[in-house]
Amino acid sequence: MVVGIAEIRLLLPGPRSLKEKRRILRSLVDRIRVRYHVAVAEVGDQNLWNRATVGVACVSNEAAHAHQILGHVLHFVESNGEVEVDRVEVRLA
């Protein structure tokens, strides 16, 4: 069993309040969860309106498959027009 974990630090240039930030993140997190069947949540920078850290986790029987799933999620986040990816850390355990 392999657990893939990605920590994605995001910049949010558009929101002017925490309420706007949470609307954007809730939408993004829900779409990731439904599309890729992974666990995903905001895990850091909750009180900053222009930054967010999102954690994504998946379980697989092969490291290559877990890495591929996390790659697809990252590509999906990068293609979202409301956020910019600042930093990504991927770990397989």
UniProtKB/TrEMBL annotation:
SUPFAM superfamilies: Hypothetical protein TT1725 (SSF103007). It comes from the Bacteria. PANTHER family: DUF503 DOMAIN-CONTAINING PROTEIN, HYPOTHETICAL CYTOSOLIC PROTEIN. This is YlxP-like protein. It comes from Limnochorda pilosa.
